[in-house]
Amino acid sequence: MKIAHLSDLHLYSVEGVPPWRFVNKRFTGWVNLRLKRGDRHRSAYVRAIAREIARRNVEHVVITGDLTNLALEPEFELARALVQDDLGLDPSRVTVVPGNHDLYTRGALSSRRFEQYFLPWQESDLPDLATDVGGGRFPVVKLRGPAAIVALSSAVPRLPFVAAGELGAAQLEALARILRHPEVTGRMLVLALHHPAVNRWSRVKTHLEGLRDAAALLELLGPVPRGLVLHGHLHRRIQRALATSAGKLQQVGATSASLHNEEPDRMAGFNLYELPTEGPARVEAIVYEPTTGLFLTDSVPKHV
Ligand SMILES: [Fe+2]
Question: What distance in angstroms lies between residue 277's CA and the mean position of ligand 1's atoms?
Fold first, then answer.
């Protein structure tokens, strides 16, 4: 089974948005974007990547959040059009989780904007085990051949300059039940969330940018012998081994699919995974080359 993984599309549009909707965290986000991010995230790269994935006949696609920049409706329109038209796969073959930018404000949470736009992609095979996390119902489980794809929401609205994530007690409890389900234990676990499950940062940076309940998540994953933990958020390709009491998980991050960056582990692209019946998944990076429009195969750097 082949899975493609892209992340952090950061599609930007303020078309038709009245100025009063910037009187909140969105204002600092918008300034930040104009000052340093605007020219580095390019939507043409995301479209090229979506089309390349469509061409490669993968069985499933995972998108690990930050599809939008400011959680505005025109950005969600762009994101949905990209998934529907450029990727062009049936929603049953695509797993989408929100990132902190998709739940940027309390308004985006209370209006359940992510769910509004991506409901057809949120159909779970174990719907009774999902819980309401505010912006939608998670975890979403997709049982596909040898894989049990489990999508989590780690996105929560935060104060300006805070990008930290949290799964919350209710979602963790739901995940514990899912991890015990025979349809899941009999398959290879593919966990998808925006934030990485381990923080290798200082306490302050973890508090500002990391997954605040990462320790509780890792404890739940203890009995899992093998599988993938897919994330975004860092805007770089990276893999780490996560030791569990029963074996080892491969945590793999995808870079931002719109990012123009000269560093090879950050330049836009996507990851490809091949799931064997036993042993670890094969992990490859597919890197976009903007001058030629071609894609090059590379490895995903391993970190300890
Ligand atoms: Fe991001």
Answer: 32
